[in-house]
Amino acid sequence: MIGDVIGQSGLKALFAGLGPLVRSSGADLVVANGENAQAGFGIGKDEVDKLLAMGVQVVTSGNHVWEKPGAAELLDGTERLLRPANYPPGVPGKGMVALEAGGAMWAVLNLQGRESMYAIDCPFRRADELLARLREESPGALVLVDFHAESVEEKEALAYHLDGRVSGFAGTHTHVQTADERILPKGTGYLTDLGMTGPDDSVIGVKAEICIRRGLSQMPIKMETAESGASISGVLFTIDAESGRCLAVERVRA
What we know:
By secondary structure, this protein is of the alpha/beta class. The chain has six helices and 13 strands.
């Protein structure tokens, strides 16, 4: 699972590094959060196509997926581009997709937090609903969750709520990789935040001088994505295909 891809520098880092990373790790499935792939805010068809061509099999997102014109049509028309599943009924797109990879059935579930974010539907209850449906339709699927959320408490609470029902659970949104990787008591692999795939010399992907000016002036100066050298950030979950339990969790920096 790959952390938020930020602008052109993030796409370039992924283009150069994803292939070697997949080969060295033996990964069967690659999931990347792409909501910031278009100039740092939002995603378009070109960015989705590039990510899929690089070897990403599912593109997840979050609150910024709506930023660009045509977002609704893109979400409705792209099978493996997800938006958070707990947006209210009638919203374009979908929040979960099932697919086969590496000889196993998988499901990727995208959810969004509510603490310090939009007051959308409950991610806990929506996850319960979708997992119950999945168990009827594809009972042996290995489930990965991208929880796009601000609050560490909310991320940990939802992970424990889903422990034993999903194989891997990773947070996105903060752009800062955490160092708390672990396997929860019932077998779910966990990391609070994947971090970002984007410019190293930046403030969460944004030009540092702009963030400094914003802090000093308290003015809403327009954010601009930094375009310095970039790194890939994420996590590798090793999962037992028979039991669905996570066997190992390894942070990735490349």
